């Protein structure tokens, strides 16, 4: 008997009809002889509606109470899902994050999981029941308070349960067919990826692929959980995200066996959510970069790419550019301006009209010429590259925002990723 | 320092504005130097909306899951109320029924309180915080499941917390100014009652007065909790419900001191929610009534009045009539029909066009002539009495449903209850 953890996002349980449909799918999985644990998000826009209510009451809701409030969303969806399954004649029991043993630290709104003790889930499974767990929420042992995990929390709940219960697979249900080589809304010939390593998935997620949250992928990679990303609207196979070194999931080739066949490039991601800050005229003496990025770190901003130009020998000054989420731009600018005289730079430039494209593939490790092919494709399309950054399995470039979709299409074609048919695109996005 | 428990119903917290208004009132109570514990219902129609969702998913929702679902309603209102209070600069903490120590049996949907262990509330109060508790919900220790208390559950939560914390008073906030001598929508000259004994209140509640639930009054009476029923829309004094023997609340006269001044009649209640079943032609031999009411008891129906006519000696048959909630009528008729031949009665009559009027007053104990005055008033108004039932402090009569409002008005006048001015009537009803 296999143990399968399934996660259904808000768009999969947006109303009573969707909940009944999802209940049927869960029952089918159970009937096929599997033990089933389900992590479920709040219905449709419930979380946003609750946030609106909170902000109608006070502009700065207390974090403990906000978590208490938001946790009501999953409580509603999980109870409805459990009763829908029971009405189909199968035993089901719903559990809050606390009841499911999701123990977190006390950081309300973005709590980290510190332990998972799914004793009651194991009991329910042993009694033949399907366990329905509230995604996104946990419990702090010291304060005895309810916490929430923040964005992508339900994915993380599912992966953490899969790890703790030693599940065979963690199925992430969403409204698209899986992970694609590029966003199918921009590249109609994008292909669904059948298999991808968790390392590659991590790079894609970190660079703008929206289907999976980086945090859940990271948790899965660290705990050897195999993910299966698939649509809740059909029965198609989706995308397997696996960890080749630790967990060669049954039937899947390990990395070494597969090296020669492995596609050079797994996929291409783009991101329009970043801005670029350039610190102009920084004295080219040791310790200045450290000083700048210590200032930035204090704001809590998440820096992505960093580029330092060679200094012009005549002036003894250099420019340092970095990208970060647009939402964090003003905070960082303010922090830098406050210490301008201390650091001794000349000025600041802020640019939020940039786009980032990242080419990801484990095959890069053993293949030269990938950068050359990427730069050539962009050059031939007349697209200017403003910044470049690389990792072992990724190359990222920054271009003007309004050229990013063209860049995505030409790169997708240049690396032979185009499929023969157009991908079917569903609307909406899950949480 | 006094400890005050306050209960706010759904109509007092129907939207963000109401919640902010209630938060201000709570803060005023705290500023006046009191410790404050608040029991709050779900916002406005939330509970009904959740029930609708459940029934859209399945016609027969599993009771455990239905309780899990409904408990989300108070979770939302209590978190919003706590954050509203905090935004006014006062410390507040919300607690679920489980966190507040409301321990119940496992009867989902109508759980009974078996213990109250408000350890976390006491801690919060000792730290100077206002404790906000989800009304209506509890927790079963054996199953570790969430339960709900059923109709009037939030009133019961408030009273149970007041008893466990030895509160000085339990304030029940609603959308009317208190308990009236009669329903002010029917009797415009009905007067607000300043003080009423819990025994009288119990009779009024049991006979159709809607403001307080009989269960909460019973709990208050048994545990010596003084209630103050008042409006959340103004600062008027409401109605004090007190237990003269056990708890002569400060400033209130005890029963004996006050006996001569005590009004003869506390109030008049009416109820259109009952139906009458007459079992026609019952053999007038010992044990037949027991047989009939054992059958009825097995259905779980709540019988109210019972009348047996003297048998006509010539036939050896008698008729037995009783009233019960209309909602239970069909079940009881079915049960009786099934055993008709065994009991040996001739037939059944069902009448759901009846109204019940109850005159309640502890003064009746020592005053003759109350029934005579009641029957005379009804006779002079041309209203026919179909059934009569009495207790030590109550007389109830059944009339045709369409005469009940006239009956209420003439009785109210006959006993000198009419006030000089018309009562102000607010719309809506709380839960």
TrEMBL record, chains A, B:
Q: Does the keyword Transmembrane apply?
A: no
Alphabetized InterPro entries for the sequence: AceGlu_kinase-like_sf, ACT-like_dom_sf, ACT_Aspartokinase, ACT_dom, AKii-LysC-BS, Asp/Glu/Uridylate_kinase, Asp_kin_monofn, Asp_kinase
Q: Which SUPFAM superfamilies match?
A: ACT-like, Carbamate kinase-like
CDD domains per the record?
Answer: AAK_AKii-LysC-BS, ACT_AK-LysC-DapG-like_2, ACT_AKii-LysC-BS-like_1
Q: Does the keyword Nucleotide-binding apply?
A: yes
Recall the GO molecular function terms of this protein's record: kinase activity
The cross-references to PROSITE patterns, in alphabetical order and at most eight, read: ACT, ASPARTOKINASE
Enumerate the catalysed reactions: L-aspartate + ATP = 4-phospho-L-aspartate + ADP
- Pathway where this protein functions: Amino-acid biosynthesis; L-methionine biosynthesis via de novo pathway; L-homoserine from L-aspartate: step 1/3; Amino-acid biosynthesis; L-threonine biosynthesis; L-threonine from L-aspartate: step 1/5; Amino-acid biosynthesis; L-lysine biosynthesis via DAP pathway; (S)-tetrahydrodipicolinate from L-aspartate: step 1/4
Function, in words? Catalyzes the phosphorylation of the beta-carboxyl group of aspartic acid with ATP to yield 4-phospho-L-aspartate, which is involved in the branched biosynthetic pathway leading to the biosynthesis of amino acids lysine, threonine, isoleucine and methionine.
**Belongs to which family?**
Belongs to the aspartokinase family.
Q: What is this protein called?
A: Aspartokinase
Q: Which organism is it from?
A: Agreia bicolorata
